[in-house]
Amino acid sequence: MKTLSLVGLLLALVGPVFGENVSPAMQARIDIRVMEIKAWAADPVIVQAVAAHNLKPPADHVALTDAAWKALPATSPLVLSFTQNPAGVFLKSKQAVWASEAFVSDAKGTKVAFLAKPTHWTHAGNPKHDEPMAGKVWQGKIELDQSSGQNQIQVAVPVLDAAQKPIGSLVVGIAVEQGE
User: Fold this and answer.
1) Which of 10, 140, 163, 178 is the most buried (most CB within 10 A)?
2) How many helices (H) and strands (E) does the chain have?
């Protein structure tokens, strides 16, 4: 019985580091960040960029695959264009110490803008894109992010048009400290 209690205590202490649990205090901080992220997603710069990308994605975006995306260096002109377009510049202007990554996707899940090159070109078929496209906020588990190298919790919110219909998603990694 004593061993079982010790194991339970250890799991309770390390659980949040491995994404199994989020403490109420951490969730309260995340909820505050989600409100900020929703405001970013509602900004006209983001909404217009997603709407335009949905209407007519650039030709070099249409044929891009995850494999081709992964092969592109972070310094390629195509990759850099996502950080230098108006939506990318907007994300940079909003970036805070707690935001380990941010990327905006169109209705099909392909990238419109980001802070730094994300691991995947598309997130279609994944809850981080599909739930916001259903009008919901999505929250992941604490994990080590491949692209930022930080422990984070990703949250995703819908980008809404004037009629409040989801037209894209905004995913932001909220950096967390181990044991937080």
Assistant:
1) 140
2) 8, 5
